[in-house]
Amino acid sequence: MHQRQLGKSGPKLSAIGIGAMSFTDFYGATSEAASHAVLTNALDLGINHIDTANVYGGGLSESVIGRFLAKQGAQKTKLFHIATKAGIAVDKETGRRYFDNSPAYLQAELDASLARLGLDYVDLYYIHRRDSETPIEEVTETLAAMVKAGKIGGFGFSEIAPTSLYRAAAIHEIAAVQSEYSLSVRSPRNGAGTGNGCAWRVIGGLFAIGPVIADRQAAFARHGGGKWLVEIKPAICRTKSDRQYRSWRAFPRIGRRNGDERGGACDCMAAA
Prior knowledge:
The protein is α/β, with parallel strands linked by helices. It is built from eight helices and 13 strands. The two termini are about 20 Å apart.
């Protein structure tokens, strides 16, 4: 398994990582046993990076990972480099989602994520979405304080605008930028889109995310002089349960027809 360095001075990560939103039922029914089997197989393949978030299944994804790690004994902190995220909050009364980058929220969510994972440190902490009410400079200072406190190894931003990324990078080293790059979203390839071209200049790389079909996983891991780290979300809707059907309507790219077409394209890339 090829490896890429996280940021300018971080650990070496496998070029392909596991996207753990699939450890919830978002892409279709799953189980904890199936998720743990994915992690075991990932280790066998030399994959050492997991990407999760506090909002994935309302913390379920992190809890599933935490229970897997708890079974590994003294090795639990040595197997994976873990990234998690915060910034998408949910109103408990209405279920409405909104963005929150306030220092109190980010600190509380990091502590809750660490508790679910059973860890006292993660390698990477993302701002999942930018809260326009909180200045990016304040957000960056909050994250830098977490690095100094030893709770995170580095931090990054998911789907960030170039102007915000430049302002953040002027305050502290940015370890990662995460944007979707898939068979249906190709803009990072040509430097277009939300901060993608800027990411090459600021940190020299990009975390590319996008769901693909598990048995047809194929991805390109190089782009010019920069570096790709590709996150595989190893599940896709295959049956038409009510929940899955709603997901297809909201996210047609992961629906059955488009999923099959994406899988065929993966087959062509793999053959090439």
